[in-house]
Amino acid sequence: MSRLDEAKTAPLSGSLGTLVSGLDLRKDLDAATVAELRALFLERLVLVFPDQHLSPDEQRALMRHFGEVEKHPERPRVLEDSDEEVVIITPAAGVSAVWHCDYQPDFLPCGICSLNMVETAADGGGDTIFVNAYRIYESFSEPVKRLLDGLTAIHRNTGNAGRNRDEAWFPLVGTHPETGRKGLFYSAHHVQDFVELVPEDAAMLLARLQQLTQKPSFSLRYHWSPGAIAVWDNRAVQHYVVPDFAGSRLLYQVTVSADLLIPLPDYEAPSESDRAVAASEIAPR
Ligand SMILES: [Fe+2]
User: Fold this and answer.
1) CATH top class, domain 132-213+263-281
2) Distance from residue 6's CA to the centre of ligand 1 (Å)
3) What per-residue confidence (pLDDT) applies to 184?
4) How far is the CA of 190 from the centre of ligand 1 (A)?
5) Residue 110 Cα, ligand 1 centroid: separation in angstroms?
6) In which band, very low, low, confident or very high, does the pLDDT at 281 lie, cut at 50, 70 and 90?
7) How many CB atoms lie within 10 A of CB 253?
8) Is the Cβ–Cβ distance between 22 and 49 less than 8 Å?
9) Exposure pattern of 184-198 as b/e (b: 16+ CB <10 Å)?
């Protein structure tokens, strides 16, 4: 019997997210429970476990059930004695009030991310909004999907000095390595151009994607309580921190690596010479 049978699960919105209560994550999870949690996670993209109050080590142990924990050597944001695996999130480091996915220091996307809410903002602000990238893709017509299927997104690092490079290119559309579901890898804050589009077309598509990212019906707005931990699939979900709070709060973040979206079979990555031409024609706007 899985320990998930004793827990309560409830959807957090129509588009994504499930609340899992009554499961003590400080106790070891058996294989059957992990398998059920992973299946639920892949279906719902965000799992939130309230009232857990995990230590950073317990958070790392939980995340090892989802993959290999990544290092984020971005001192001073990393927790001492955590093998560079636990990132400290406080308002002093800035509030991520932009729609984005998380990236590793080498500017590859993180696979699966977790946030452990230690101390909430006293004024009740600081919700996190998650948006389902499958819903964005599926909202387009078939002709537009065919266009998107051939595009290479240019991701630009904006202001994070802890990253080793400033630009990365990924197919905009791919299939999820575990579910085979087709969707976008899209981070509104970082995707700033497309290799195959002229600037006017790229600007129009970016505006449309940004508009859809903010569509309430594709999203989940989660209001934190102390001790809650959220785990999300960073390959299919963007997130945004609502900057409506003042004063202190504290979260720990731990991420694990996971395979990226698989390019579509007929996707052709731009050649080196195409990249050079595109790089010279597409200037940051
Ligand atoms: Fe983030």
Assistant:
1) alpha beta
2) 31
3) 97
4) 12
5) 10
6) low
7) 21
8) no
9) bbbbbbbbbbbbbbe
Residue pLDDT, tens place only, 11-22: 999 999 999 999
Helix (H, G, I), strand (E, B), or coil: what is residue 31? helix
Q: How far apart are CA 175 and CA 144, in angstroms?
A: 17
pLDDT band at 279 (very low <50, low <70, confident <90, very high): low
pLDDT of residue 268: 87
Distance 100 CA to ligand 1 centre (A): 6
Q: How far is the CA of 5 from the centre of ligand 1 (A)?
A: 31
Q: What are the residue boundaries of the structural domains of the chain, listed by start?
A: 3-93+105-122+221-259, 132-213+263-281
Per-residue pLDDT, 153:
97
Domain 3-93+105-122+221-259 is found in CATH 1.10.8.50 = no
Q: Which residue bears the tokens 């002093």?
A: 92
Q: Give the helix ranges, DSSP H, for the chain.
A: 31-44, 56-63, 133-138, 142-149, 199-213, 272-281
Whether pLDDT at 280 is above 70: no
Nearest to 244 by CA among 108, 89, 107, 125: 125
| Ion ligand 1 nearby residues (CB, 5 A) | 96, 102
Would the CATH topology of 3-93+105-122+221-259 be identical to that of 132-213+263-281?
yes
User: What pLDDT is attached to residue 250?
Assistant: 97
Please give the distance, rounded to the nearest whole angstrom, from the Cα atom of residue 284 to the centre of ligand 1.
Answer: 23
**Residue range 85-115, pLDDT digits in tens:** 999 999 988 889 999 999 999 999 999 999 9
Q: Are 256 and 64 in contact (CB under 8 A)?
A: yes
State the distance from the centre of ligand 1 to the C-alpha of 103, rounded, in angstroms: 8
Per-position DSSP letters for 233-284, written without gaps between them: ETTTEEEEE-----S--EEEEEEEE-PPPEEPTT--PPPHHHHHHHHHH---
